[in-house]
Automatic annotation (TrEMBL):
<keyword id="KW-0786">Thiamine pyrophosphate</keyword>
<dbReference type="GO" id="GO:0016740">
    <property type="term" value="F:transferase activity"/>
</dbReference>
<dbReference type="GO" id="GO:0046872">
    <property type="term" value="F:metal ion binding"/>
</dbReference>
<protein>
    <submittedName>
        <fullName>Transketolase</fullName>
    </submittedName>
</protein>
<comment type="similarity">
    <text>Belongs to the transketolase family.</text>
</comment>
<dbReference type="InterPro" id="IPR029061">
    <property type="entry name" value="THDP-binding"/>
</dbReference>
<dbReference type="InterPro" id="IPR005474">
    <property type="entry name" value="Transketolase_N"/>
</dbReference>
<dbReference type="InterPro" id="IPR049557">
    <property type="entry name" value="Transketolase_CS"/>
</dbReference>
<feature type="domain" description="Transketolase N-terminal">
    <location>
        <begin position="11"/>
        <end position="255"/>
    </location>
</feature>
<keyword id="KW-0808">Transferase</keyword>
<dbReference type="Pfam" id="PF00456">
    <property type="entry name" value="Transketolase_N"/>
</dbReference>
<keyword id="KW-0479">Metal-binding</keyword>
Amino acid sequence: MNIDKLKEISKELRKDIIEMIYNSGSGHPGGSLSAIDIITYLYFEKMNIDPKNPKMDNRDRFVLSKGHAAPALYAALAKKGYIKKDELNNLRKIGSILQGHPDSKKCPGVDISTGSLGQGFSNAGGLALANKIDNKSGNIYVLLGDGEIQEGIVWEVAMSSVQFNLDNLVAIIDKNGIQLDGRTSEIMNVDPLKERWQSFGWNVIECNGHDFEDIEMAFSDSKKVENKPTMIIANTVKGKGISFMEDNVEWHGVAPSLKQKNNAILELSK
């Protein structure tokens, strides 16, 4: 693993996130920035995928269950070669392949349309079960928000994934502590996360979601336990990489002004 290369890519993708949300005039910068290091690791280090053969039979699949963080996924898809870089300028525009939430019928590289919180996790569980039944080798990776796991459907999937021994399912919680209306601890406390998922029978690993060495270790450890799905709790910072956005509730779903956009790009260029 080339950590310096991954850091360089994640910084580039952060710039793309800010630019596309500014251009669209709407979007979700905070949760996109907190998730981008995990997404960078998956797309540029971990997953068995091929942009030239996007429907490869035994490929790994990624499901962005927290679909509002679509700018992070789109930035990675453009960098990886699934879509043209120029498409990022069309985020949320009428007729664009880059909708406010990922659309599998419009955007190459998107396997599952997401947006309604919790349903992407359910879809990921179904994909993992289908791969088991069909004896396919591909793993299913799914990224959830910590506010998202307040949804009841999440805990149905938590039970069924253990029931069906889905050890080809690796879920990641982007634990940045903030959701739309405030902090998760104040709205509907999701802690203690590790103990809760362990009680459902999952293999649970914690990591620093912005440290590539720690991320690598977590994903390596996910394969050490057989017959259990794995939950990686990635401790992150909302708006990571841009000082005035970091750990700030106000940046959940607000586009930056021109001045704020320029200041953010300047910070990321240092």
